[in-house]
Design goal:
Two copies of one chain form a homodimer. Chain A is of the alpha+beta class. The first copy, chain A, folds into two domains: about 280 residues, Aminopeptidase, CATH 3.40.630.10; about 120 residues, Alpha-Beta Plaits. In chain A, strands 1, 2, 3, 6, 7, 8, 15, 16 and 17 form a nine-stranded mixed sheet that branches. Chain A has a four-stranded antiparallel sheet with strand order 11-13-9-14, with helices on one face. In chain A, helix 1 crosses helix 3, helix 1 crosses helix 14 and helix 12 packs antiparallel against helix 14. Chain A starts with a helix and ends with a helix. The relative contact order of chain A is 0.19. At the A-B interface, strand 9, strand 10, helix 6, helix 7 and helix 9 of A face strand 9, strand 10, helix 6, helix 7 and helix 9 of B. Strand 11 of chain A pairs antiparallel with strand 11 of chain B, so a sheet runs across the interface.
Chain lengths: ~450, ~450
């Protein structure tokens, strides 16, 4: 079937006011998933989506879970790959309400110095983003009568409350949800002119260590000198974690850490990342990671070891000459490539134990272990989507990394065995999770057009 | 004047029951200095002492201070040195009262498996100890009609509430209080058979450091790798404070740290200190200080650097992937010899600043600085007192150190320009500051005899 993408884009432009009204309808439903008082609203949002998707001729349904429902829809019969689209229709709470300039569930298009925005809770995270895809499908169907790909929708209602039902649901519906590739619309642009496909998400390994020394806090005058001080032992262990080049010293830590492919390095260099601005915004000036790495590498493609918390002895006002009985730290590792969190947990524990003097013992508490998600960008859909995005936006799209974790991409890989293209149009100033959340009309409009182009391009691979 | 010490000792033995009754009288006065409700009781105890001392023919008076009164008395015309005797007549609170086996201010002599004890608040700390000296004077006067030395008493009523009036009082009464040597009765035996004269008290330097990095807590996924982590910077600084031999690495730290004189080393070795028992009591087994030093050196004659507290980032339950904006530690140094706390504070701060990366700044908070007190044991009274004590107790007396500080000895040195002999008969199990405080009748009886012998010996130097 030959497609005419221009006609679809024209249709999107023409229908933008109606698309916006539909988004505003959805934004009026206060689907705050974490608040039991809003359970009915979450359910209502699910019903709204089922109606919308059914109205597009898709087989749509609301699947009950122990928590909020999952909206699932299927349609399309194009020759292209089978795609699974994921977004979420629940939103964050709105407290503190007094910091909002207008009611959070009474959406309004506002003029701002940077252009028009849609202001409401969920406008960006994630209802506005979700609707870019649905509106792209609508325009496509209106122009062509059918979709160019097979498509499954999986819209979650629990993303903002920890996704308690997601993994069991995916495991129970493997066959129904399995596709060639997932599309996840919950990320942002690299900058207002540069779209991005997130292809690398760092994993996370969390460990808490508690060093025990004397069996009670001691007086540092009576015992200081002769009794071991667990705070000193802990400081030594934590200091040993990095060498003076910023490399992590746990044996085997860099097993499975790949060098950045040249093509990706070139793309990242082309992004012109403003490291000074990024660090300057939080009062810093100098990238503090491994020597010889760029700031973007430090953030996206290099593993880290961070102390997230540390506590020992007396920390109140004034002074107490106590020799503490214990000292503890919370330490986390951001993982990349194929670093194995379980192996690293053992290696870290051995590293700590090796440094333990005779009179100390250590207690470990584990706090999660998830490997990095690295997409197989060799699948031609990735380059096709990148080209499509590059046509829509002022600057070429890039495959980027993300320092944090987006668990859904990992679940799609581990449970459904497929890679994800994480594409979204949010901006850094969207104030998600904060008062006065907004989504740029430009994000919404170009977002719809982007998806239309991506569907067109991916259908042809 | 030839003295007959045997007659004095016999008198002490004969009068012991009456001495004990007088101590019980004093113990019945609940002179809790920290509790304003007991201010009248503290005053009553002062009056009681003035009456007792006047009854011995001394010129005794109660000096008002902004807090509780000071009891001062003068007497004696012997040829020996002029001695200032210090003790305190106030006591600790008694909470939790329900843990006492009997009313804390209803003293009773009890039989225990280890011998007879006097049970009451203040029995050991410090009324029982104070009365050993007063009873020794009483016996001496009874036998000889006069004291062999010139003697000034300075009995404090605020020791257990921080001695707020002490320094101004000493400064205002320099001439009245100045003597050749001070006797302080507020310490303990080395072990139940071995008396001790404390001649070395460690000083204390307290510092708090706060390392500031980013201007707010950051998300360790978004910023981890590129942003400096102050907890890591602090851990490195704290780890650098010691080398792998346990030596403190602050430049100049060991300036003024003397090697132990051979004679003192021999005395300490003769004490047969049970390091295993000392450490075993708090769940430890191995002296953790400088390599090549004995446990007693680590505790008494070597300086230390200890981390007393440490805090950064998230320390609650569970995990938070925060990259902390700051990290802080409370660090203290126990000082010996002529180490200068003010120079060391500056050296420590320079040490920290040198290790500060570009994007961090440090804030310092000072928490006190007092040098070590090292008595001039060359004064012949020290050896005389040691010999006298050795005659009274099963094992020879030793000059010992104390890991903590006893401020009064420092004040006597700095304000009145005299050394102190710290001699006391308390035992480790006296439960001072705790419920069921006691003083062994053996401590009381031999304590009185010890002072009689010391007065005799010191008068002859």
């Amino acid at each position: 079937m030959p497609t005419n993408i221009t006609a679809v884009l024209d249709q999107i432009d023409t229908d933008l006011p109606e698309s916006l009204e539909r988004l505003k309808d959805l934004l009026r439903i206060p689907s705050i998933s974490t608040d039991p008082a809003h359970a009915g609203d979450v359910d209502q949002a699910a019903d709204w989506l089922v109606r919308e998707l059914a109205g597009l001729g898709l087989a749509a349904r609301k699947d009950a879970t122990p928590g909020h429902p999952m909206v699932v829809a299927k349609g399309g019969d194009g020759d292209g790959p089978h795609l699974l689209f994921y977004a979420h229709y629940d939103v964050q709470p709105v407290d503190p309400l007094e910091l909002w300039d207008r009611p959070p569930f009474d959406p309004e298009v506002q003029e701002t110095p940077k252009g028009k925005v849609i202001r409401a809770r969920g406008a960006s995270d994630d209802k506005g983003q979700m609707m870019t895809f649905i509106e792209a499908c609508r325009a496509w169907l209106k122009v062509h009568g059918s979709l160019p790909v097979r498509l499954t929708f999986c819209l979650e209602g629990e993303e903002e409350c920890g996704s308690p039902s997601l993994v069991p649901y995916l495991e129970a519906n493997r066959d129904a949800l399995k596709a060639d590739l997932a599309l996840i619309c919950d990320t942002g642009l690299f900058d207002p002119e540069t779209p991005a496909i997130t292809t690398m998400l760092r994993g996370l390994l969390g460990e808490e260590i508690i060093i025990h020394g004397p069996d009670k806090d001691l007086h540092s005058g009576m015992f200081g000198g002769a009794a071991i001080n667990p705070a000193r032992v802990l400081a030594r262990i934590l200091a040993d974690l990095h060498d003076d080049q910023g490399r992590v010293m746990v044996p085997g830590f860099y097993d499975g850490v790949p060098e950045l492919p040249d093509a990706l390095r070139a793309q990242w260099e082309g992004l012109g990342f403003d490291a000074d601005g990024f660090l300057g915004a939080v009062g810093l000036s100098k990238p503090a990671g491994e020597a010889g790495r760029t700031a973007l590498e430090m953030l996206w493609s290099r593993p880290t070891c961070e102390i997230n918390g540390m506590t020992s002895g007396y920390s109140g006002a004034g002074f107490k000459t106590v020799l503490p009985a214990q000292a503890s730290a919370k330490v986390s590792f951001r993982l990349v490539g194929t670093q194995d969190p379980h192996k690293l947990r053992e290696a870290f524990r051995a590293f700590v134990r090796e440094r333990l003097p005779e009179d100390c013992r250590v207690e470990f508490i584990e706090h999660g272990a998830s490997p990095a998600s690295v997409m197989e960008t060799g699948h031609p859909a990735f380059e096709a989507a990148r080209a499509a995005l590059s046509q829509e936006w002022p600057k070429p799209a890039a495959f980027v990394g993300a320092g944090g974790s987006i668990p859904i991409a990992g679940y799609f890989k581990s449970i459904l065995g497929m890679d994800s293209m994480l594409i979204g149009f949010a901006k850094d100033d969207d104030q998600i999770h904060s008062p006065n959340e907004k989504y740029d009309l430009d994000s919404f409009h170009r977002g719809i057009r982007s998806w239309a182009r991506i569907l067109d391009a991916v259908a042809k691979v």
